[in-house]
Specification:
The structure holds two protein chains of two kinds.
Chain A: E1 9-13, E2 18-23, E3 31-38, E4 45-50, E5 55-56, E6 61-64, E7 70-75, E8 84-92, E9 105-110
Parallel strand pairs in A: 1-9
Antiparallel strand pairs in A: 2-7, 3-4, 3-8, 5-6, 6-7, 8-9
Chain B: E1 5-7, E2 10-13, E3 19-24, E4 31-37, E5 44-50, E6 53-56, E7 65-68, E8 75-79, E9 88-95, E10 103-104, E11 108-112
Parallel strand pairs in B: 2-11
Antiparallel strand pairs in B: 1-3, 3-8, 4-5, 4-9, 5-6, 7-8, 9-10, 9-11
The chains are: A mainly beta, B mainly beta.
């Protein structure tokens, strides 16, 4: 079973920041937080991951709370092409660990 | 660099018929995953290979599903016989062993009628 809880859907206005929350209250000390997204009719696409510190790349920022029980993925300037299902996954970065997907959050970016 | 390639992209078959899906991972990627995705749900792992060895097939319904990864490169997933409930998207992904990021193909959408 997925170890994360996400809202089933969210809306965001085009050009505004999209903040997608994820709860992972049972996360272990060696588990990373990963975010993937899946645009309609495509396979999931890696976005970002982190352990403790906040992370930023060209796609998004990841904010992890100090107790690591929740995190937020931030798309700073959402576009219509960001409409997708966003998955939050916790995973140990070791040999033999799978990616376990939950139902994710369906983000709709509105014009 | 080519990504994960899957074929066919779509497949429609009658129930009780066999079907096979093919996956070519990213060159050099040791780990290969097959996932099943039902409509409105997240992907579910069927099997994971490390090179040519199936290291996690606990979720693979072995009565009708089989997979192989000869020579540790490309892989085939087979269903025989197919049932109506097998209608879904079958996704293949690959990564370097122990690596952080898995790359997914576009998937094969199977419809069993």
């Amino acid at each position: 079973d997925a170890k994360t809880t996400q809202p089933p859907s969210m809306d965001c206005a085009e050009g505004r920041a999209a903040n997608l929350p994820c709860n992972h209250s049972t996360i272990s000390g060696n588990e990373y937080v990963y975010w993937y997204r899946q645009i309609h009719s495509q396979g999931p696409q890696y976005i970002i991951h982190g352990l403790k510190n906040n992370e930023t790349n060209e796609m998004a920022s990841l904010i992890i709370t100090e107790d690591r029980k929740s995190s937020t993925l931030i798309l700073p300037h959402a576009t219509l092409r960001d409409t997708a299902v966003y998955y939050c996954i916790v995973r140990v970065d070791n040999y033999g660990q799978n990616f376990v997907f939950g139902p994710g959050t369906r983000l709709s970016v509105l014009p | 660099e080519a990504g994960v390639v899957q074929s066919p992209r779509y497949k429609i078959i009658e129930k009780k018929q066999p079907v096979a899906f093919w996956c070519n991972p990213i060159s050099g990627h040791n780990t290969l995953y097959w996932y099943l995705q039902n409509l409105g749900q997240g992907p579910e792992l069927l099997i994971r290979y490390e090179n040519e060895e199936a290291v996690d097939d606990s979720q693979l319904p072995k009565d009708r599903f089989s997979a192989e990864r000869l020579k540790g490169v490309d892989s085939t997933l087979k269903i025989q016989p197919a049932e109506l409930g097998d209608s879904a998207v079958y996704l293949c992904a690959s990564s370097l062993i122990g690596n952080t990021e898995a790359f997914f193909g576009q998937g094969t959408r199977l419809t069993v009628v």
